[in-house]
């Protein structure tokens, strides 16, 4: 037997002719049989003769694609399309579902679905559900929801790939019925969750919702775009305004392809941030705000009159501001800064403990421990030179002796107890000591005169 074309086969059956057995064989061999697995695979089936109309002026309608109480393996595509004679249904929605399920609701692989195409006004009206088991009618179904109140006509195409027998060719439609859809009522194209591009729904990863350009030949219609560029000495991206101006700033790498000598953000001639990869140095052309810790092996402030500001935030109150050093285990080591609005401290711990040196705004200072210096100058007025004035009344020796025997210290010099309890003012004490030395000098001069008189007698 041989395969023949249609014209040859027609010759066998012209009026008055009697086809032979071989010619009948040619006829059969020239056409495909629906049961031939070499032509029509049991693992791939399509059904595209579905058409339905949703009623006019009735929103929240639905129709079910009934798949039967069957084994469903592999993936299915459901495509719903509308046409131009119904303006609010124009477009197409295509959904892909992967599932593994036996009959009688034994689902061993829950449906995983994604919208692989959604365009046109149809996305405002049609929502395709997933494969679910209907326990009332005891079969699997896919519900197509219609949320618009305008009556619209649609067609449906089903495709099924499976390692077992494909079943969508046996699917039927239910009657249209009322079924309000809650939650998300519109489809958006997404791959493995989110994406979006120009949509309110995905919300990450990506989302976009605006315009991004990476093609240097594409026109900028409106708004701001990002345009990529590449030359023999640089490559990067520019922020491009609607007038095509490429000097709106951007970010780029400068240098030959195999040797980058500069990365920068901003305009090239007025760089906000630049980084030299060879020297590992960064330059910032403005202020830097960091909410958190800044870690570095060293810091250098370089200018004609460098100033380091430690600003207190009035929003949070308090006066604690300074430099805190820490040990490798995270414990505080040294603190240099304010512990109060009028107090500066150097502490061997935090701002409120281990205070070694305290300076108050009024000029007073406190040191915990010894002070060592090559030289020490105390400015104090007046001095003790008033002792040498002609009208100075020097205490009689007998009075001085009596005072010492009663008080156990010199006049106008604090006692040992007073020094212990109240401390000692070095400036005042030095003047008092000078005063006592000058008084002692006067006593010696007076004694010298008395001795000279005694010798002369």
Work out the number of β strands: 21
Mass-distribution shape: rod-shaped
Report the end-to-end length measured between terminal Cα atoms: 176 Å
In spatial order, strands of the major sheet run 11-12-13-14-15-16
What is the number of helices?
A: 5
Helix/strand order, N-terminal first: HHEEEEEEEEEEEEEEEEEEEEEHHH
In percent, how much strand structure appears in the residues? 25-35%
Q: The CATH topology of the largest domain is what?
A: Immunoglobulin-like
Question: What's the helical proportion of residues?
Answer: 10-25%
**Please, how many domains?**
5
CATH class of the largest domain: Mainly Beta
CATH superfamily of the largest domain: 4-oxalocrotonate tautomerase-like
Roughly what is the average pLDDT, rounded to an integer? 83
Class of secondary structure makeup = alpha+beta
Overall CATH architecture of the largest domain = Sandwich
- Extract low-pLDDT stretches: none
**Whole-number radius of gyration?**
49 Å
- Largest pleated sheet: 6 strands, antiparallel
Considering the chains and any ligands shown, give keywords for the structure:
alpha+beta; Immunoglobulin-like; 457 residues; 5 domains; 5 helices; single chain
């Amino acid at each position: 037997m041989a395969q023949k074309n249609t014209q040859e086969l027609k010759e066998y059956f012209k009026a008055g002719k009697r086809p032979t057995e071989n010619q009948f064989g040619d006829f059969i061999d020239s056409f495909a049989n629906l049961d031939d697995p070499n032509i029509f695979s049991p693992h791939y089936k399509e059904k595209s003769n579905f058409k339905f109309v949703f009623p006019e002026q009735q929103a929240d309608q639905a129709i079910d694609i009934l798949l039967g109480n069957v084994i469903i393996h592999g993936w299915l595509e459901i495509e719903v399309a509308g046409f131009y004679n119904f303006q609010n249904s124009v477009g197409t929605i295509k959904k892909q579902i992967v599932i593994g399920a036996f009959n009688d609701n034994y689902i061993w692989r829950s449906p995983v679905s994604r919208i692989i195409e959604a365009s046109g006004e149809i996305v405002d009206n049609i929502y395709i559900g997933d494969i679910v088991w209907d326990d009332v009618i005891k079969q699997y179904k896919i519900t197509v929801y219609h949320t618009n109140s305008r009556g619209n006509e649609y067609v449906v195409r089903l495709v099924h790939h499976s390692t077992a027998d494909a079943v969508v060719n046996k699917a039927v439609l239910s009657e249209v019925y009322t079924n309000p859809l809650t939650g998300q009522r519109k489809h958006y194209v997404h791959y493995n969750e989110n994406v979006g591009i120009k949509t309110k729904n995905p919300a990450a990863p990506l989302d976009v919702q605006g315009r991004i350009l990476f093609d240097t030949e594409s026109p900028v219609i409106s708004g701001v775009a990002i345009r990529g560029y590449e030359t023999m000495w640089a490559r990067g991206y520019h922020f491009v305004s609607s007038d095509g101006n490429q000097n709106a700033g951007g970010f780029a790498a400068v240098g030959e392809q195999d040797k980058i000598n500069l990365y920068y953000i901003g305009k090239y001639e007025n760089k906000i941030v630049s980084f030299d990869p060879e020297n590992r140095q960064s330059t910032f052309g403005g202020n830097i705000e960091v909410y958190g810790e800044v870690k570095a092996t060293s810091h250098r402030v370089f200018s004609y009159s460098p100033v380091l500001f430690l600003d207190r935030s009035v929003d949070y109150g308090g006066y604690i501001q300074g430099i805190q050093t820490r040990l490798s285990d995270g414990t505080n080591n040294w603190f240099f800064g304010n512990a109060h609005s009028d107090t500066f401290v150097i502490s061997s711990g935090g701002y409120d403990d281990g205070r070694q040196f305290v300076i108050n705004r009024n000029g007073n200072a406190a040191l915990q421990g010894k002070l060592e210096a090559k030289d020490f100058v105390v400015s104090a007025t007046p001095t003790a030179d008033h002792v040498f004035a002609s009208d100075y009344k020097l205490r009689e020796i007998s009075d001085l002796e009596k005072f010492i025997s009663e008080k156990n210290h010199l006049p106008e010099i604090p006692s040992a107890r007073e020094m212990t309890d109240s401390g000692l003012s070095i400036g005042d004490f030095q003047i008092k000591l000078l005063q006592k030395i000058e008084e002692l000098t006067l006593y010696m001069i007076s004694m010298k005169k008395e001795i000279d008189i005694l010798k002369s007698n």
